[in-house]
Amino acid sequence: MPTKTTRMPLHPQVQAFISAADPRRPKLYELDPEAARAQVASVVALIGAGPAVAATRDIAIPIRDATIPARVYAPERSHGTVLWLHGGGWVIGDLDTHDALCRTLANAADCTVVSVAYRRAPEHRFPVALDDTWDALRWAAAEHPSTPLVVGGDSAGGNLAAVCALRARDRGGPTLALQVLVYPVTDHDMTTASYVEREAEDALMGKRSMQWFWDHYIPDPADRANPEASPLRAPDLSGLAPAVVVTAEYDPLRDEGLAYAQRLRDAGVGVTAHHYDDMAHPFFSFVNVFQRSNEAVDRVAKRIRATVAPTEPARYGAAQPRMQP
Length: 325
Hints:
By secondary structure, this protein is of the alpha/beta class. The protein is 35% helix and 17% strand. It contains 9 helices and 8 strands. It has helices at residues 12-20, 33-47, 99-109, 128-143, 156-170, 193-197, 207-217, 254-266, 291-308; strands spanning 55-62, 67-74, 81-85, 112-116, 149-154, 178-182, 243-250, 271-280. Strands 1-2-4-3-5-6-7-8 form an 8-stranded mixed sheet, sandwiched between helices.
């Protein structure tokens, strides 16, 4: 008889975090975008400061019709450039919400990290965020022509990174050494098992929050099947840069992330996959808070280093979180 598998429970640190939340706090989908951004900004204080890096600077990246803010993190030694696209459902999140993550990643990967503040919905709907990040990727390639280039992001940022990798293939560059997709949005389908499991907002993010994000980013559901919004629907994934795909068990995006990784493999693209059975969306950016978050960032950083500087030994380990189970 087949062995029955038991689902791993949420990590004690995540359980403690959820239990400590104020039950009177409004759900994300109950707020307007500005109030949601203010609510998420409180996470910055919770995560705390990231590690020191050799240098940081805020810059403005020229794009087709404007400039967008970005923050550059330079470690003591840099073997490559990572363009990082923050998560937040194309609506929330910014340079500050991902500051600690980008600092940790820059040091651990020995790469210059450029964090991009693309314009957000609903003030700027699809494809503005995508076009902003595409322009930023081409800018990074021109600014750092002699070093390997990596594009990465988490959640909605993972969606933008995946589509930028497709554009890079289809538009003649820039050449990418790696694409890093952390629980990426790859499809608008909300009938998958992982969405059904997350009907309730019981593990940091659920189905209704994702509905809220999509409604602000692309209001007409008929437009969401565009492969530049739902890259899992791209007809051909061959010839893309190698990928790192990170997924979490307690995440409505789990199944589409796993499906995208499998489609990449089927197309002959090299995939390094990391699945966290006891984690929830958006754990990756909670460095200093969850032990597994630091471990995950460190694993991704080691893969980046192995790609951009294969002869260099790893020099950094994951920082220890303040919060204990």
